[in-house]
Design brief:
Layout: H1 3-12, H2 21-29, E1 34-37, H3 46-54, E2 58-62, H4 66-78, E3 86-89, H5 95-106, E4 112-115, H6 117-120, H7 123-130, E5 134-139, H8 159-166, E6 171-175, H9 180-190, E7 196-199, E8 207-213, H10 218-228, E9 233-237, H11 241-253, E10 258-261, H12 267-278, E11 284-287, E12 300-305, H13 312-319, E13 329-335, H14 337-346, H15 352-370, H16 375-382, H17 396-399, E14 404-406, H18 408-420, H19 427-434, H20 440-444, H21 461-473, E15 477-479, E16 487-489, H22 491-498, E17 504-506, H23 518-525, H24 529-546, H25 550-553, H26 556-565, H27 570-573, H28 581-601, H29 620-630, H30 635-642, H31 646-658, H32 666-672, H33 675-687, H34 693-700, H35 706-721
Parallel strand pairs: 1-6, 1-7, 2-4, 2-5, 3-4, 5-6, 8-13, 9-11, 9-12, 10-11, 12-13
Antiparallel strand pairs: 14-17, 15-16
Helix pairs in contact: 2-3, 14-15, 24-26, 24-28, 31-35, 33-35
Length: 722
């Protein structure tokens, strides 16, 4: 056994290196600059940890997250007899700890010193590092240096100037995800254009990829998914801290061992949560992207994206935390076009160039979500790797393939249009030309007059999307890396114009935000139709007895859930959406008795995983609204004070009254509405079967505004139902 293999066995207990590790380490030992592109789970950290232990001096490891540093330092110390062999310098240390680190570094005991980029720039740390022998610099998560990367950190841009101040030594840059554009950015900014490059395959055959429509049923869908994978570790990524907190609470309410994790929490809580996850005291982490970089938990069995991520790189990095041991890894992403608009809104106020980059990255993610092409093929193509199989057998698109259609004539039209517009435009512009849209831009570039203008107007946009995606994958066109998004013909594309051959496409999927999805279908199929009919009959009977419309007692959606989860007590009933304590006590007993009798007569046992409990909504905003109404504050003033639109305030008030809380807004209605209008609308709801707003608008006519109808409906529900 050679010395390198002997050291691998001695320090880490492994008998052999993974793909590329040995060559990477040998290059670093020779003093070469090295660039490493290696997917999560490929063993990046060993590429700098082993040479650091073997070389003279201290290796400086620049890392973006405190949690990552702690995790890796603990691992290195486990391999050694002396804790001083590895340290980190960051904001979590007190003065005594910092003094100990500096002492160990000065006397040459420390072989690996992990620093945050912010710590590296401090004058006192620069002075310390100038005085010691540095073996090399390792820049982990190197994609943070690029604006095109999914986690850009401006402080990473300062690393090269600081290295120049401290002193020359080889640099190894490592990342788990980088497109060609990001790779070039990293090398240029670190001044290592001469670096020896190593690129491992991005294919993770054990990962299963699926995109589901995101609807109002998402929380129930997640609960059911977790129950199907009981006891397994998982990560759920959300975009906002509020979503993280709300979803974690919802999971806890449903007896799932879950905890939230985001940058707004204090470092002690975050650290404790991470330890609980690693030690399996909790099963699920609900997190923003602040969680996961470098977390070395090999048996994460699923990663769920509650919101679609901002970039495909981010998505790949986050899904890569599943199945690092080569075992099962399920990657489920929920997608809605509303989320895209929300993400675009986040970009407002940023510099124009940054907004442009952000929108391009977001477009790639949307394109991935909507496509019917093999998801593995799409991901690998994005990272410049070809996947030669037509069906990977391990993603939703391959397991449920869409029928492919011949589209060679459409490809010819696309290629001709790219040539006619001098290969200077992105796909959106090309679609405008193909579909004959007279936009300001098309007019300005005088492309109304070219023969290709409008040659594809009979073809839907989603079909053109599929043509462009497939043409990129088949290498007939490519995107200019330096001028992101501009489409150009490849040699194969030029040949195709002379000699077209068969070109098959699968049309993109439609994600319509109409509340329907595979989730909804699953929920509907779980409804007990016999019980639902009985519940509807009971509601009708009670509405006659009490002289109130049926929907005032319980809404249809509430009955659907009752016929699915079989609540048998007033307490159970309060966990049904739209049923608060007041409503449950007022109307609930007869419904519970009926359900209990039905279950006994038909020997129905309620499956535990269907008892989905909702979180009692005690949010401060609702309490505050009720208190303001009690003090007779004008509703438009409440909306202004809360920083919400008037219609959004009415949404909140409707939720309050529909769940059974009684409020009195007469003082406001009397102030802003005509008395006859109030009586007319009130009478309409008394006689109406549905309480639906659209029906009310149609029936009552243009004389009445939507806000007026909603205000009186709130009054009506509150007085009659609560």
């Amino acid at each position: 056994m050679d010395n390198l293999h002997a050291s691998l066995k001695e320090y880490f207990g492994f008998d052999r290196f993974k793909e590329n590790q040995e060559d990477i380490i040998k290059n670093l030992l020779k003093g070469n600059n090295v660039f490493v592109l290696m997917p999560t789970g490929g063993g990046k950290s060993l590429c700098y940890q082993l040479p650091a232990l073997l070389m003279e001096g201290t290796a400086i490891v620049v890392s973006p997250l405190i949690a990552l540093m702690k995790n890796q330092v603990d691992n290195i110390r486990h391999q050694s007899e002396d804790d001083g062999v590895a340290h980190f310098l960051n904001s979590s240390l007190n003065k005594a700890m910092i003094d100990q680190v500096k002492e160990d570094v000065k006397i040459g005991k420390t072989k690996l010193l992990y620093v945050a980029p912010e710590s590296l720039t401090k004058e006192e740390n620069i002075d310390l590092l100038r005085k010691i022998k540095i073996s090399f610099y390792a820049i982990d998560e190197a994609h943070c240096i690029s604006e095109w990367g999914h986690d850009f950190r401006p402080e990473y841009r300062r690393i090269r100037p600081i290295i120049n101040e401290i002193g020359e030594a080889p640099v190894i840059a490592l990342t788990a995800t980088a497109t060609d554009k990001v790779r070039m950015d990293i090398k240029k900014n670190l001044g290592i254009n001469d670096a020896v490059e190593f690129k491992s395959s991005f294919n993770r055959p054990n990962l299963y990829y699926e995109v589901r429509p995101k609807t109002s049923e998402i929380n129930k869908d997640i609960i059911k998914f977790i129950h199907q994978h009981k006891g397994k570790s998982g990560i759920i990524y959300c975009l906002s801290r509020k979503e993280v907190e709300d979803l974690a609470l919802f999971l806890q309410t449903n007896d799932i061992k879950a905890a939230p994790y985001h940058a707004g929490m204090d470092s002690i809580t975050r650290s404790q949560t991470q330890d609980d996850f690693l030690m399996e005291r909790i099963d699920i982490i609900v997190a923003t992207i602040a969680f996961g970089m470098g977390i070395d938990k090999p048996d994460v069995r699923f990663v769920i994206h509650y919101d679609i991520p901002k970039s495909l790189e981010g998505y790949y990095q986050e899904t890569g935390r599943a199945g690092r041991d080569g075992g099962e890894g399920l990657c489920i992403a929920f997608y809605s076009q509303k989320d895209l608009l929300r993400l675009e809104k986040f970009m407002e106020g940023k510099p124009i160039a940054e907004q442009d980059i952000g929108r391009q990255l977001l477009k790639e993610t949307a394109s991935y979500a909507e496509s019917s092409i093999c998801r593995r093929k799409l991901i690998l193509h994005y990272f410049g790797e070809e996947y030669d199989k037509d069906n990977c057998g391990h993603c939703d698109n391959c397991l449920h393939p869409t029928i492919k259609v011949e589209a060679s004539d459409l490809l010819v039209k696309l290629l001709k249009t790219i040539v006619a517009t001098k290969e200077n435009f992105r796909d959106d512009y090309l679609k405008d030309v193909l579909m004959g849209r007279e936009t300001e831009e098309v007019i300005a570039y005088r492309h109304l007059d070219i023969d290709e203008f409008g040659i594809g107007e009979d073809t839907e946009e989603k079909v053109w999307n599929a043509v462009i995606k497939q043409a990129l994958i088949d290498d007939y066109i490519n995107k200019d890396v330096e001028n992101y998004g501009v489409l150009k013909l490849t040699a194969a594309g030029k040949n195709y114009l002379n000699k077209p051959i068969s070109f098959m496409i699968a049309e993109d999927k439609e994600f319509i935000d109409d509340g329907m999805s595979n989730v909804g279908e699953a929920t509907t199929s779980a409804i007990d139709p016999t019980l639902l009919n009985m519940l509807v009959d009971l509601r009708k009977q009670m509405s006659k007895e009490l002289d109130v419309p049926p929907y005032v007692i319980f809404q249809d959606a509430s009955l659907d859930v009752m016929a699915t989860v079989y609540p048998q007590s007033i307490e159970d009933l309060q966990n049904i959406p739209g049923v608060g304590a007041g409503k449950a006590k007022r109307y609930g007993k007869r419904f519970c008795d009926l359900i209990k009798r039905h279950c006994e007569e038909n020997e129905i046992e309620r499956p535990e995983d269907l008892r989905i409990r909702t979180v009692a909504n005690k949010s401060k905003i609702k309490v505050s609204i009720i208190q303001s109404i009690d003090r007779k504050v004008a509703l438009d003033d409440i909306a202004m004070a809360k920083g919400v639109e008037f219609s959004e305030l009415l949404d909140e008030i409707e939720a309050i009254v529909y769940s059974g809380t009684k409020i009195n807004i007469d003082y406001f209605i009397e102030d802003v509405m005509d008395e006859e209008h109030v009586e007319d609308i009130y009478q309409y709801f008394k006689e109406s079967e549905t309480g639906d707003l659209e029906d009310a608008l149609d029936e009552l006519g243009d004389e009445y505004t939507e806000d007026e109808i909603r205000l009186v409906r709130i009054k009506f529900i509150s007085e009659l139902a609560n």
